Amino acid sequence: MTVKTKTKTETRDMFVGGKWVQSRSGAVREILDPADGALLARVPESGREDAAAAIDSARAAFDDGPWRKVTAQDRGKFLFRIAEGLRAEAKKLAELETRSCGKPLAEAEFDVADAANCFEFYGGLATKLHGETMQVPANSLSFVLREPVGVCGQIIPWNYPLLMAAWKLAPALAAGNVCVLKPSELTPLTALELARVIEAVGLPPGVVNVVTGPGAGAGEELASSRKVDKVAFTGGTATGRRIMAAATSNLKKISLELGGKNPNIVFADADLEMAVDGALFGAFANQGEVCSAGSRLLVQRPLHRRLVDAMLKKVPRIKLGHGLEPGVKMGPLVSGAHREKVEAYIKIGREEGAKLLCGGKRPAGAAFAKGFFLEPTIFDEVKPSMRIAREEIFGPVLAVIAFDDEEEAVRIANDTEYGLAAAVWTKDVTRALRVVGQLRAGITWVNTYHPSHNEMPWGGYKASGIGRELGLHGIEGYLETKQVNVNLDETPIGWY
Ligand code: NAD
Questions:
Q1: Is 215 in the pocket of ligand 1 (CB under 6 A)?
Q2: Fewer beta carbons within 10 Å, N or C terminal of the chain?
Q3: What is the pLDDT of residues 54-63, one digit of tens each?
Q4: Ligand 1: which residue has its CA nearest to atom 13?
C-alpha cells in the first residue's frame, strides 16, 4: 500500500473528538481490494501527533466531559443502538469487509452479525456490573466499587477488522471508558463506518476516536503515551512484545491477544467425516488468516492415511475467487507482502523435508492475476521440530503430524511458545476431557473447530497473550477496583 500526498477524490476522514478530520501532515494511504487491486478509498495516514491529538480528546472526554455522568442504563442503551445501526447497514458493511480484507462474503456477513451481537451482549452487561461488600474486623462499612480504567488505546489487526473493533469498543464503553481505536493500516474502512454509526447514536464527542495509520507512529503513541491508562492490543506476538515494553512508560494496564500455532488433534476413533470437515475448516476458513486456526493437524497413525486422503478429495471444493462472487470459499490473502511471507514458509517447509500434498502455489488464470491468491496448501510428514510446525504462518498452510498415543499427542500439542486454541476429535468423552485438561491453551474444542461466543472468554496461555476478551472476563480488563471504608465508630482513635 503506497503512501501518497492527499488528493480530494475518494479521501475519507478519521474520527477524532467528534469531528471528521485529516492527518496533520496531509498524508493519505491508498486502500486497495486485495482480490483485484481496485482502489477502495484513501484514508489519513496518521503519525504520532495525530494519535496524541486523539488521546487529548479522549482524555478531555473522560476527565471533563459529560460521559462520566452517563448512567449504566444509558451506556447500555447507546450500545444497543450501535448494534441496531450495524444491523441496519449489515449488507453494505459485509461487502466492504470482503473488499477490504478479502474474506468470502458469507464469512463477512457472519462477522457483522457477531459484531452487533457483541455490542448487545455488553449493552446488557453495562447494568450488571457490581461491587461487593464484606464484613471487616473494624467497626466499618467496607465495600468495593468498580470504576472505568479511563482512556483506552485499542490497536487491532486486519483479519477481522470490524469484529475486532467491536470486541474492543463494546466492553470498554459498557464499563464507562473512553477509547482511541487504531485499526490496521491495511483495513481501516469498516472501523470508520462503525465510527459513523457511533456518531449517529450520539455518544459525547471524544468518547470514541478512530485514528487510521500505521503501527510505527500512531500505534506507538497509543502504547507509550503517559495519558493513556490502558492499551488493549490484538496482533502479532512480536508486536505484542514491543507494545508491552512501550507500556512501561506509565505502567499502563495492558491486555494482549496474540498469535497461535494451534493443534487440532484427531484420535483414531474420531468420526472421520466430521474430522475431515473440522480439519479443513479449522485450517482454511478466512484463508487461514485466523489467530486460532488449526494450523497443526495431529493425527493418530491408524487414521492418518484415510484422513489425509479424505481431505485431499475435498480440497478442490474450496473455490478461490473474489469474496463477493457466489460460491467462493477462499479469497485472496490481505496483501502482496503477506502472501510473500506465507510463500516463504512454503519454501521452508519443502526445504525442511515436509511432503507437499497440495497447493503451495498461486492459482493460474486471469481471474487471479491482480489479487494476492494462494492455493490451500497441505504438508504431510511434518516433524514437530520443523519451523512450519512451530511458527505462525497465518495463511492457508496446514502441517500434518502423525502421532502414536495420547501422551505423545499432548506433548507435541503443547510444544510451541503459543497457547491460544486447540481441538480434540474422539468419540471417547473421558479421553476428550482428559486431553483438554492437559492442553496449555485458552480456547479448546471437542469434536468441532472455531465456534466462538461473545458470552465466553477469549484469549491465550503462554506467548499467545495476557488477559481475556469477551464474556464476563472481557470486561474485567476495563474496570478498576476501589475499596471504600466508612468509619461507623464515633469515638476518636486516641492513638497520640
Ligand atoms: P501486527 O502485529 O502486524 O499489527 C497489529 C496492529 O498493531 C496493527 O494495527 C498495526 O498497525 C499495529 N502495530 C504494529 N506495530 C506496532 C507498534 N510497534 N506499536 C503499536 N502498534 C503497532 O499484526 P497483523 O499482521 O495486523 O495481524 C496478524 C496477527 O494478529 C497474527 O499474529 C494473529 O495471530 C494475531 N491475531 C490475534 C488474535 C487473538 O485474538 N489472539 C486475533 C486476530 C489476530
A1: yes
A2: C
A3: 999 999 999 9
A4: 215
